[in-house]
Amino acid sequence: MTASLRRIWGMIYRHLALYRRSWPRLLELAYWPTLQMCIWGFTASFFAMRGTGAAMVTIGMLLGGVLLWEVALRSQMGVAISFLEEIWSRNLGHVFVSPLRPWELVAALIAMSILRMAAGVLPAVLLAWALYAFNLFALGPALILFALNLMAMGWWVSLGVVSLILRHGAGAEALAWSVLFGITPFAAVFYPVSVLPWFLQPIAWALPAAHVFEGMRAVLAGAAFPWEHLAAASLLNLLWLAAAAWLFAIQFRAARIRGALLSIGE
Length: 266
What we know:
By secondary structure, the protein is mainly alpha-helical. The protein has one domain (about 1-265). It has eleven helices and no strands.
């Protein structure tokens, strides 16, 4: 176990060193979450100028949705971009010449995604509090439970993306930026699932995010804590994570057999 932790830390340190020497990378971490918060914050301020008390609750749900969805986005991109860094630097083959095992690489990528997510989302949370008087931490302990489920969703989505990159090479790299944006209409980030057409609602309920955001809106509206949504989100995450891990294991083994770990991206 000590050797595994040392190898995982070595991979984490390798990526931390990239950020230590590159201020553009550091700036990029917070740029998009902060930009999103500014855009939606100004929109919420416009509604507040014309709204009532009920409108203020809706604004809180809007800003809460923006911030929590960034947790999923940054977690997903944290894993995918860190993996792509290995491909772009032609380092993937060198990594697996070492004793590093696939699960150790995944553990290091997940650890990096947590750090990247925190560095990106926390400035946006502080900006929402400073400029719009919206305190995401007012959700209390529910915030941790919601955030953990959204982080887990980001991880299994990114494992699916990494699997596709292992299978299709550079042609699948664009999915690292686009997959979760494509899921957004079904995630019920800014509106309840009931707004969707009836034939799209089963797709939404199959995603942990829909349950998380339904739960968030219930908490912000002052309703009882939605344990049923939390349980559904957790169970779905376990199922999707198991499926994504299985897919990754298959594609990694296939890539190793055909020598793609040395040539991927070319």
